[in-house]
């Protein structure tokens, strides 16, 4: 049986190691967002984190593993945030509004996360494939939302996939806009974008 003090020591080390990994991931995100994927070396990431490059190698076998964890961390965080916002939506129209406004507010709160992901995807083949899989899954979910709204009579007739692609492109553009123009009125931006798509999809009686 494992001694109590030894077990507690292992738990403490595990907590410290997870905290350190999180610190490194955060530093990697900021470095990639600021300098780009190709210039985000262990040395540069370590300098931002205030640690040695060797400590990064202790927690991550190589740069590929670190970059992969950056992507997983960002997508899990964003997915959890949006899922919470969409829970108990009373209608498809309300779910669409919550999705759009929620994404815009998430981007405003985590601009470097989304910029880092886009820069990784543009430079690394493996990362590009990962991002494309995530994008395809998002498009499928959006198309299902639009299809459900049509079936309930809330949305007009249109091709769900086309509208999903259009919305995804608009949200991707919003990421860049908010990053490059930090003085943007986020609430107004989110509301207007949601209004735009609400008008585009709603089933207006003739």
Explain this structure to me?
With 206 residues, this protein is mainly α. The chain folds into two domains: 60 residues, Arc Repressor Mutant, subunit A; 144 residues, Tetracycline Repressor, domain 2. 81% of the residues lie in helices and 0% in strands. It contains nine helices and no strands. Helix 2 packs across helix 3, helix 4 crosses helix 5 and helix 6 crosses helix 7. The longest helix is centred in the N-terminal third of the chain and has 32 residues. The chain starts with a helix and ends in a 5-residue tail after the last helix.
Helices and strands in order, then pairings?
Elements: H1 4-35, H2 42-49, H3 53-59, H4 63-86, H5 92-109, H6 111-123, H7 125-151, H8 160-180, H9 186-201
Describe what is shown at a glance.
It contains nine helices and no strands. By secondary structure, the protein is mostly helical.
Mind describing the biggest β-sheet? none
Q: Any low-confidence stretches, pLDDT <50, length ≥5? A: 4-10
Q: Tell me the overall shape.
A: elongated
CATH A-level architecture of the largest domain: Orthogonal Bundle
Question: H/E series, N to C?
Answer: HHHHHHHHH
Annotation keywords:
206 residues, 81% helix, 2 domains, Tetracycline Repressor, domain 2, Arc Repressor Mutant, subunit A, elongated, mainly alpha
